Amino acid sequence: MGAMNPPALLVEALTKTYAAGTAPAVDGLTFTLPMGQTWGLLGGNGAGKSTTIAMLLGLLVPTSGRVVALGHDMARDRFAALARMNFSSPYIALPHRLTVTENLRVYADLYGVPDAKRRIADLVEQFALGDFATRPAGQLSAGQKTRVALAKALVNQPALLLLDEPTASLDPDTGDWVRTTLEAYAAQSGASILLASHNMAEVERLCSNVLMLKGGRVVDEGSPAALLEKYGRDDLEEVFLDIARGRARAEAVA
Ligand SMILES: Nc1ncnc2c1ncn2[C@@H]1O[C@H](COP(=O)(O)OP(=O)(O)OP(=O)(O)O)[C@@H](O)[C@H]1O
Known about the structure:
Blueprint: E1 9-16, E2 26-33, E3 38-43, H1 49-56, E4 64-69, E5 72-73, H2 78-82, E6 85-88, H3 100-110, H4 116-126, H5 142-153, E7 160-164, H6 172-189, E8 192-197, H7 200-206, E9 209-214, E10 217-222, H8 224-231, H9 236-244, H10 249-253
Parallel strand pairs: 3-8, 3-9, 6-7, 7-8
Antiparallel strand pairs: 1-2, 1-4, 4-5, 9-10
Helix pairs in contact: 3-4
The protein binds adenosine-5'-triphosphate.
Adenosine-5'-triphosphate is lined by residues 18, 25, 43, 45-51.
Keywords: ATP-binding, Nodulation, Nucleotide-binding, Transport
Organism: Roseomonas fluvialis
Domain ABC transporter: 9-240
């Protein structure tokens, strides 16, 4: 049984080694995401962001370590947690022959959404999907697919939302609109969001705390403001590059 007010995510020594004898893709990751906060997972290509998210969702079995989502241990009690979670990832395609509305209906039914018809109508309006709601998902542009994927991610009004690159392939205006929508959703629902991103401006705007990943380990963490101060930088991109290149603060400000 979960505690009265469990954190959104409790992650303990989470490790994934894809093949024996190779370096772990995720190596002893430990953090606690409180309810109601949005955190960022930052790291270069291959840092372990997608592997982490796949384990948090129970899509990938950890080599060792533990994930407790919304008070439910993912190794034992995954479905209780998944009902109140959702995600979007550019690596997971929506069934491409189904129309946008049919896709949303499939996911609404999977998640047991009450009054699914009404919820889908609301999402179509909120995400401005009306122009292509009856087109097969496979025929949409990358940006349109991203919007549908986000609508799908909110279909069950999740308490915990895991987003892998939520604004990849969106034009700046649409990207900005998606950020506003996510902010509003978190504020109105009290949901927690974990966001993997390469977009530093996005992370600075949305996240109260950032985990900097390198080689599957957290090499630094803090609020965007604290990280900027610590590294003596003006934007998170510079902090990120300092960390990626292994520069300490003294060298970074020199
Ligand atoms: N299915 C797999 N089999 C073997 N190795 C894998 C597999 N998936 C990922 N890896 C390796 O695990 C490491 C972490 O990859 P991961 O995709 O989690 O990183 P990422 O931070 O999401 O990267 P990106 O920003 O490029 O998406 C990389 O070295 C990658 O090559």
